Amino acid sequence: MSESTGVAQRRVCVIGLGNVFLGDDGFGCLAVEVLCREYDCGPHVEVVDLGAPGLDLAPYLFGRDLVVLVDAVNVDGEPGTVQAYRESDLVHSHAQLRLTDHDPGLQESLARLRLVGRAPAELIVIGVIPESCNFGERISPIVLRATSMAVEKLVRLLQARGFDCRKRSQPGQADASPVLSQLWRGSTPETARSFHAWRHGDLRR
Amino acid sequence: MAKRVTIDPVTRIEGHLRIDVEVDSGSVQKAWACCTMWRGIETILRGRDPREGWVFAQRFCGVCTTVHAMASVRAVEDALHLEIPANAQYIRNLILIAHALHDHIVHFYHLSALDWVDITTIPKADSARAASLADGISSWPGNSHRELELVQDKVKGLVASGQLGIFAHGYWGHPAMRLSPEMNLLLFAHYLQALEFQRKSNQIVGILGGKTPHIQNLAVGGVMNAINLNSLATMNMDRLEMLKSLFQDVVPFVQQAYFVDACLLAGSYPEWFKYGRGVANYLAVPDLPLDAQATKFDLPGGLIMNGNLASVRPIPDWHDKPIRAAVAEDVTHAWYQGNGALKPWKGKTDPDYTDFQPEGKYSWVKAPRYDGSPMQVGPLSNILVGYATGHAATRKWTDAALERISSVHGSRVPVEDLQSTMGRYVSRAIRSAMLSDVGVKHCQLLTENILRGDAATYNPPQFPQQEVEGVGLHEAPRGTLSHWVVIEKGVFSNYQAVVPTTWNASPRDEKDIPGPYESSLLGNPVADPSKPLEVLRTVHSFDPCMACACHTLDARGREIAQVKVL
Hints:
The complex is a heterodimer of chains A (205) and B (566).
Chain A: E1 12-17, H1 27-38, E2 39-40, E3 45-51, H2 58-61, E4 66-74, E5 82-86, H3 87-92, E6 98-99, H4 103-115, E7 122-128, H5 141-160, E8 166-167, H6 180-186, H7 189-200
Parallel strand pairs in A: 1-3, 1-4, 4-7
Antiparallel strand pairs in A: 2-8, 4-6, 5-7
Helix pairs in contact in A: 1-5
Chain B: E1 3-8, E2 17-24, E3 27-35, H1 41-45, H2 53-57, H3 65-80, H4 86-112, H5 127-135, H6 145-161, H7 181-209, E4 218-219, E5 222-223, H8 237-268, E6 282-284, E7 287-289, E8 297-299, E9 301-304, E10 313-315, H9 321-326, E11 327-330, E12 341-342, E13 367-370, H10 379-388, H11 392-409, H12 421-451, E14 468-476, E15 479-488, E16 491-498, H13 500-504, H14 516-520, H15 533-541, H16 546-549, E17 562-565
Helix pairs in contact in B: 4-7, 4-8, 4-12, 5-6, 5-7, 6-7, 7-8, 8-11, 8-12, 10-12, 11-12, 12-15
């Protein structure tokens, strides 16, 4: 198939997964947001918050050198523990390690990509053990504290593979986009105001 | 002796759905659709600023994020009587078209084809014959003998390894699987090729939306895309050309692979035009507005009752009064407090879980009704309404599909037969073929409007102090979507989403009338109750997506469906 048109694809994709309304399940979305704000990961690394994409995960895995998924994982252990897993860990100890919610999409997307020969060359999961994933909850303090640890792990991992991640002197804007998980997490009149001021200026003066 | 079969969860859908059927003498006598997840996101939106509602609403679902963002801003704009610039309409339309194409392609190949295509027969196929079969019906370049041979080798490797992986749970060798090995090979080749077009449609959404999923370019009052033909950083001629060529790349796959495959499949399984009719009341709303005021649309809206196409009532635009008065949600059989129906603007979401009670409450999905009647929504409604109102593009593509199907089948298939399980698959392909043309057209409309010197994309909203109500309508890939909002003193005082899957997966109502899934299963054949493939065909024909019908996800969901036969 031709790939003549379209946007040039970056070699690495860092993907935050999770449902921001389900407490600690929103960890992945938050962690990639923090990564974008604090680090400039250079021209080869794409960083995206995909939420819970199901089978729509496939286009983001397609043909990459490296994919890093950031998510809450269902494993036994102390809540807030951050751990990196290789793809083989996902396949062989499937019963023990399951990403919350998004797993069926991941396995199916990978299987399809393998059949067309475009599976990512390397896949790593940075997972946190959640304390609680109930509807309408915010991220728990313990998992919130683990976020910076996860971000550092991510940065070291990218640097070890030769991708230049530099700490920003001033916080950057994640994709120049409104910061949903912050808005939801904080959800104070303050954050809501800054969101609108950024987008439209204060329209209700 | 009647047998009770429970499929929980139904796989290859988004979200969790349980289906119970009573099977007697090889066919379904009674059916229940149960959604096993709770819906409660509306409560999060109450008290929030309407300008940020869409940011939250697009997290209703992980898959169709854009449709909820769109319905949300349209609802607020409707409440404020706020018009948006023509450029904003076109940009929104392009996103909606690209999303719909992506969604329909994924549904046909990845979520439902394996109910009809037995991949374990592919090693037996004669790949040269498969290529010549394709040659006579399609100009798609991905059908070459070489390409098909490569796909066959991959499947041979997979089958020989004994590790079918994600394909291990198919009902392979089921007596209801009847395609030739060559057809199976051809369709599976497109299953693999579809990935490329899933990506391209996604890129269109990304370019315009700034990001996908969860687009960032919307605003109540328009879009935030800057237009300046002299700037490299904004929407300029290069960007417009790129969009157009992405759409043009998707067109051949949709029209020469997907559309042709759907007709081939339908002509090969003609008995499925007899099953799965169910609720024959159809609702579609107009979409893809062609002007700033939204007076003309590329997709027609309307209402058909009792399967009678001649009775169609067109819905001319979003100001349509009857639809605002007619929609209500009944909770008699749903796990919410109370009985009977409420209008969405007065709607409540107070849970009352009772366990699965077939004669009582049994689902988290409410039962939406139109003047008291259940309605079917989705591409089939879209196509029937277009056909009945004489919409030229619908007629062209529907007639072309029926002709292809009839020639495979060997006898004439009339348009009325689309009211069936197979009709829903075919209608989705017809809609896609049509949308792929419309996508190129809207790129053109946007470019021409910009070249006329119009760069406007946004009109600022003004919020009154008094209470105002609005509804945002969108004809989403799975059917009519409506967000109903009440705004008071600049914040939401109520928010209700009536989503396509709520219409289709609706439980029984006050009068005990079942919803579309439930009634479409009646009379459905079931050759082997322990392998209810035929039930899945009908359920999958609706493209269920429970994630937004019932909003929360089961955080520790089970993976593999259990089929329990009692």
